[in-house]
Design a protein that fits this description.
It holds the Pfam family PFK. InterPro entries: ATP_PFK, ATP_PFK_prok-type, PFKA_ATP_prok, Phosphofructokinase_CS, Phosphofructokinase_dom, PKF_sf. Its cofactor is Mg(2+). Substrate binds at residues 126-128, 163, 170-172, 223, 247, 253-256. With 323 residues, the chain is of the alpha/beta class. The chain has 2 domains: 3-139 and 260-303, 3-Layer(aba) Sandwich (Rossmann fold); 141-256, Rossmann fold, CATH 3.40.50. It is 42% helix and 18% strand. It is built from 11 helices and 11 strands. It has helices at 16-29, 40-46, 79-92, 103-116, 140-161, 176-184, 199-211, 230-240, 262-280, 300-303, 312-321, and strands at residues 3-8, 33-37, 49-52, 96-101, 120-124, 164-169, 189-191, 217-222, 246-250, 286-291, 294-299. The strands form 2 sheets. Strands 3-2-1-4-5-10-11 form a 7-stranded mixed sheet, with helices on both faces. It has a 4-stranded parallel sheet with strand order 7-8-6-9, with helices on both faces. α1 links the parallel β1 and β2. α1 (16-29) runs parallel beside α9 (262-280). The longest helix has 22 residues, at 140-161. The termini are far apart. The mean pLDDT is 95. It binds adenosine-5'-triphosphate, 6-O-phosphono-beta-D-fructofuranose (F6P) and magnesium ion. Residues 10-11, 126-128, 170-172, 223, 256 line the site of 6-O-phosphono-beta-D-fructofuranose.
Length: 323
């Protein structure tokens, strides 16, 4: 393969730049021309494509965001949009694609391959870690560390005022950021989409904490939790415990930015290198991931929407440690 394209798609995640760097440098090392496609599939449709040099990826390994920019493209979900994207690949002579994104990005890639047989290899770039086929996704570690830093600060002020905080972290369909930041910050409770939230149980645990004279309560809620978000949880608690001083804090997009952690830089570098090598060897429609320390390739169709159930031992541990 002579010419390959690379794009980032869906929500950005810290470490995407490190992945772009690894892809460009591996491609050039293998004698390929690597074309950057800006703004994900939307840029592919619009022909926002340029040839990348190894120096274009200098000094980016430590930077958050994505130098290629990203987008969610409604147009790519139409036949006309895909046809325009294919035309642009033909114009630039691009024979294969490296896609850094999440489940939606890979779903799109499979549809595109069915129509136009352009081979693609993916890298898991999402803070949510809502993909099977890899132990970690690029950006997850950094996002959890950002959440931990923020929740630690919230605990300081909560302690000063004897307050209860309901903190919402990202995770549209997966509770891994909530689970891991909650454990790391000693949260009193953690609400995640993988478990049906019984609000009466949550209220009971607060009641028990009150009897034990706990003065600070931190509840970490994943945005995708089935009860309806942290605001509703906070309102329900206020209604049941009018004497408690309750605050709600939504951490939001700060979790998507910032310098990637060392773990995300290493993961991105390994997967970027592995993905280009695989594409060059004729592998297609797979996502490169790392399981138990080894690079593995999982077909896009198996990667799509995979959250692993949270182990009951982990939940039991959270209850014990928050006594
Ligand atoms: N069924 C589909 N057909 C064609 N294209 C799709 C399809 N699903 C998703 N895409 C394309 O992939 C893009 C990215 O998908 P999505 O917005 O779901 O993000 P993602 O890749 O899952 O990342 P994240 O969830 O981490 O933000 C979409 O904006 C769309 O252009
Ligand atoms: O970029 P947007 O549209 O605000 O998307 C937010 C969503 O993206 C994610 O950050 C994943 O990329 C989710 O955690 C969150 O629900
Ligand atoms: Mg997704």
């Amino acid at each position: 393969m002579r010419n390959i394209g690379i794009l980032t798609s869906g929500g950005d995640s810290p470490g995407m730049n490190a992945a772009i760097r690894a892809v460009v440098r591996t491609g050039v090392f293998l004698g390929m021309d690597v074309f950057g496609i800006r703004r994900g599939y939307q840029g592919m449709i619009e022909g926002d494509i340029f040839k990348m040099k190894t120096t274009d990826v200098s000094n980016i390994i430590q930077r958050g965001g994505t130098i290629l920019k990203t987008a969610r493209s409604k147009e790519f979900m139409t036949d006309e949009g895909m046809a325009k994207a294919y035309d642009q690949l033909q114009i630039h002579g691009i024979e294969g694609l490296i896609l850094i994104g999440g489940d939606g990005t890979f779903r799109g890639a499979n549809k595109f391959f069915e129509k136009y047989t352009i081979p693609a290899v993916g890298l898991p770039g999402t803070i949510d870690k809502d993909l099977s086929g890899t132990d970690f996704t690029i950006g997850f570690d950094t996002a959890v560390n950002t959440a931990v830093e923020a929740i630690d600060k919230i605990r300081d002020t909560a302690e000063a005022h004897d307050r209860l905080f309901v903190v919402e972290v990202m995770g549209r369909d997966a509770g891994y950021i909530a689970l891991n930041s909650g454990i790391a910050c000693g949260a009193e409770d953690i609400l995640i989409p993988e478990m049906v939230t019984d609000i009466n149980d949550v209220l009971c645990r607060i009641d028990m904490d009150e009897r034990r004279k706990k003065t600070v309560h931190i509840l970490v809620v994943a945005e995708g939790d089935d009860y309806g978000g942290s605001k509703k949880v906070a309102e329900t608690i206020m209604a049941r415990f009018p004497k408690l001083d309750v605050r709600n804090c939504v951490l939001g997009h700060i979790q998507r930015g910032g310098a990637p952690s060392y773990a995300d830089r290493v993961l991105a570098s390994r997967l970027g290198h592995a993905a280009v090598t695989a594409l060059n060897n004729g592998t297609t429609q797979v996502m490169a991931g790392i399981i138990n320390g080894e690079v593995v390739y999982t077909p896009f169709s198996n990667v799509i929407k995979g959250t692993t159930p949270v182990s009951p031992d982990m939940l039991e541990m959270i209850r014990v440690l928050s006594v």
